[in-house]
Amino acid sequence: MAREEFIALFVEKAGLGTKAEAAKAVDDILGLIQEGLVSDGTVFIRNFGKFSVRARRARKGRDPRTGASIDIPAGKTIKFSSGRELKETLSRGTKGLDLKDFVGNMDFQLKDIKDKFDEYGKKAESFSVEAKKQYKEHAERIGVNYKEASIKLKQLSTSGGQAFKEVKKGFENAFKELKISFKKALEKF
């Protein structure tokens, strides 16, 4: 990915207003990494990876144009070691990075849970009086949780990078509550 493509994506994901703001942010981040390498020799970004300065000894090499032997002086180089989360994301492929796939998958699961509970609702007439009462209580809670999860999912699909983590956390909590409510309801019936 070229710098311009990266900046264009950064504008979209970080919710910045202009490419100039994104370019400045990218330059600032890269500048901080450079400063960290110069001052400490290491920059560690949790779940992403670790940049570190390595000494390289003098060695013999070949000039690619002429094929002549040349002396390469000692110097420094940068080593990057990927973090656990980056490795896992890469092993899953781009699916781990695709927001549209995530939203589509969550929307499908959400609707599937609601459909299953609605099927039980159609059988409510055959329930005992107590079971009908419990079903009604759970149905109301599931309805609220379903609406909240749907709202969070919609926000997630339209939000920029700044809101992504907050909305994702809220959606995951709402989805977890919905699953718990659904499980309790199924246990009652």
List the helices and strands and how they pair.
Blueprint: H1 3-14, H2 19-39, E1 42-45, E2 49-56, E3 59-62, E4 69-72, E5 75-82, H3 84-92, H4 99-122, H5 129-158, H6 161-188
Antiparallel strand pairs: 1-2, 2-5, 3-4
Poorly predicted ranges: none
Number of strands: 5
Global morphology: elongated
State the distance separating the first and last CA atoms.
Answer: 54 Å
**Number of contiguous helices:** 6
The largest sheet is: 3 strands, antiparallel
Beta fraction: 5-15%
Oligomer: single chain
Taken in chain order, the helices and strands follow as: HHEEEEEHHHH
Mean pLDDT: 78
Q: Strand order of the main beta sheet, please?
A: 1-2-5
User: Could you estimate the helical fraction of the residues in percent?
Assistant: 55-70%
Rg, Cα atoms, Å: 27 Å
Q: What structural class is derived from the secondary structure elements?
A: alpha+beta
Q: How would you sum up this structure, described in words?
A:
This protein is of the alpha+beta class. It has a domain at 98-188. The protein is 66% helix and 15% strand. The protein is built from 6 helices and 5 strands. The strands form 2 sheets. Strands 1-2-5 form a 3-stranded antiparallel β-sheet. The chain has a two-stranded antiparallel ribbon with strand order 3-4. The protein is elongated and about 90 Å long. The termini are far apart. The mean pLDDT is 78.
